[in-house]
Design a protein that fits this description.
Largest sheet: none
Number of strands: 0
Strand content: under 5%
Radius of gyration: 23 Å
Order of helices and strands: HHHHHH
Oligomer: single chain
Number of domains: 1
Distance between the termini: 41 Å
Mean pLDDT: 81
Helix content: over 70%
Number of helices: 6
Shape: elongated
Low-confidence stretches: 1-11
């Protein structure tokens, strides 16, 4: 019987079951990026709250411009325009909080080795891409959305690397 040293092992040696594999660096970096995305979303939400008055004023101005264009159809009262501005502001804050929670949830799931987290993260990245495109066309300040998108892109690339797939499975 010929003994083989460890350096003479075949290149594609069978891997142990997924539970016994250490987390690949690509997965760890993706998790760190997802936590960074949660931090960016939280910072953007905090800035939205602290800048609430100017955001409401901008929403009011836009609603008023749209109202003036459609004045032949009756239009809205000033009180109704203020309601639109307030609802827009609340919607931005709620969307920011949801974004923070989704980033954190996906990071948590990926750190637990859940294969579905990678697929779900990809879907959320697609939604983030749509949000970025819609926000850009409306002239909304999209600094944090673009930063989140870049972080999300890097995380998605890392989540779909071969070693991450071997660790997480097909998902």
């Amino acid at each position: 019987m010929i003994s083989q040293s460890s350096s003479a092992r075949p290149r594609h040696w069978p891997l142990p079951p997924a539970g016994e594999l250490p987390e690949p660096p690509s997965l760890l970096y993706a998790i760190y990026l997802m936590w960074a995305g949660a931090g960016l979303a939280l910072l953007g939400t905090i800035l939205t709250v602290t800048d609430g008055s100017s955001l409401k004023a901008e929403a009011f101005r836009r609603a008023r411009i749209n109202n003036d264009r459609a004045s032949g159809a009756g239009g809205y009262t000033v009180a109704q325009l203020h309601q639109v501005a307030s609802i827009t502001f609340i919607g931005l804050v709620v969307a920011g909080i949801i974004s923070v929670l989704l980033w954190a949830w996906i990071a948590w799931a990926a750190s637990r080795g859940r294969g579905w987290a990678r697929t779900f993260a990809s879907v959320l990245f697609g939604l983030l891409t749509v949000e970025m495109l819609v926000s850009a066309s409306r002239g909304v300040s999209i600094i944090f959305i673009v930063l989140e998108w870049v972080v999300g892109l890097a995380a998605i690339v890392l989540l779909w690397r071969r070693e991450t797939t071997a660790y997480l499975g097909a998902g």
